[in-house]
């Protein structure tokens, strides 16, 4: 009888401790609070200066948001989703003329709680890509590009705004084991883009930033992640010329060569009928990344 009583008491103590532990775990999450009072402001940008609405024709805007109890913000513009802790994001519209667009801001609070607000913005876009640029990119129908892996300085990096391949330029075949060389980038004249990751199903990118893709695996090699498992996908492409610099932009997670996050826009630094050199700034704001592309 005494042994049975001890077992009952022991079970009771374990149950109380477990219940107390669960309560402590629950309390550790803190109060769940959804953001409130979302405020959204829009700034029109032309030649790096503010313009009155609807802008002077660049099509570029900066959207800023603030809200009570918000820890991060997500901006949804033309199907693109941009997650920013800073509360601001930039976007360039390319449809010619003055057009009205919906901009949605999702504010995130503690415990994943969120609130959203949608506004409409009127934007003027006047840039029309030159015919020879469209012909080069799409062959007026569809054209597939690849990294010029057999050429010196086909991939590299440098300081932001610095010269081409300033810090590093890959030698021929230097990244043969990265998962980059069999990727193909197809630009269709209707504005669609396909990134075929090749038969190996791998892509190449920067540590931490590459996790934005939602793929898996990969092998760390310094700050590079090689052979990261990912699938072929499609997106949209647009051409703009902020400050008279021809720029190729991809929607969503669209990227070329090496994933670095950022704004997914590539300056066309130089181009000919069968080659283009492009650069983009990474999402950490550390480097400009350079790519030399040739047609398939």
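Sequence proposed for the structure above (296 residues):
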């Amino acid at each position: 009888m005494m042994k049975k009583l001890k077992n009952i008491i022991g079970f009771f103590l374990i149950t109380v401790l477990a219940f107390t532990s669960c309560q402590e775990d629950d309390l550790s999450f803190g109060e769940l609070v959804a953001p409130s009072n979302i405020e959204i402001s829009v700034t029109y940008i032309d030649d790096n200066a503010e313009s009155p609405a609807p802008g002077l024709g660049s099509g570029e805007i900066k959207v800023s948001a603030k809200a009570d109890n918000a820890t991060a913000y997500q901006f949804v513009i033309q199907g693109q989703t941009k997650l920013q802790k800073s509360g601001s994001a930039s976007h360039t519209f390319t449809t010619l003329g003055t057009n009205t667009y919906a901009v949605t801001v999702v504010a995130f609070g503690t415990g994943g709680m969120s609130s959203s607000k949608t506004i409409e913005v009127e934007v003027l876009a006047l840039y029309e890509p030159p015919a020879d640029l469209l012909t080069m990119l799409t062959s007026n129908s569809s054209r597939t590009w690849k990294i010029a892996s057999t050429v010196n300085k086909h991939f590299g990096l440098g300081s932001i705004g610095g010269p081409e391949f300033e810090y590093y330029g890959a030698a021929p075949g230097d990244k043969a084991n990265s998962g980059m060389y069999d990727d193909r980038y197809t630009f269709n004249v209707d504005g669609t883009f396909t990134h075929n990751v090749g038969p190996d199903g791998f892509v190449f990118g920067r540590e931490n930033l590459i996790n934005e893709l939602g793929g898996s695996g990969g092998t760390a090699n310094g700050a590079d992640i090689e052979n990261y498992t990912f699938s072929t996908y499609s997106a949209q492409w647009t051409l703009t010329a902020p400050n008279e610099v021809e720029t190729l932009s991809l929607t969503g997670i669209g990227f070329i060569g090496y994933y670095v996050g950022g704004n997914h826009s590539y300056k066309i630094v130089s181009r000919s009928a069968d080659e283009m050199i492009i650069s983009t700034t990474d999402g950490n704001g550390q480097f400009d990344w350079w790519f030399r592309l040739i047609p398939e």
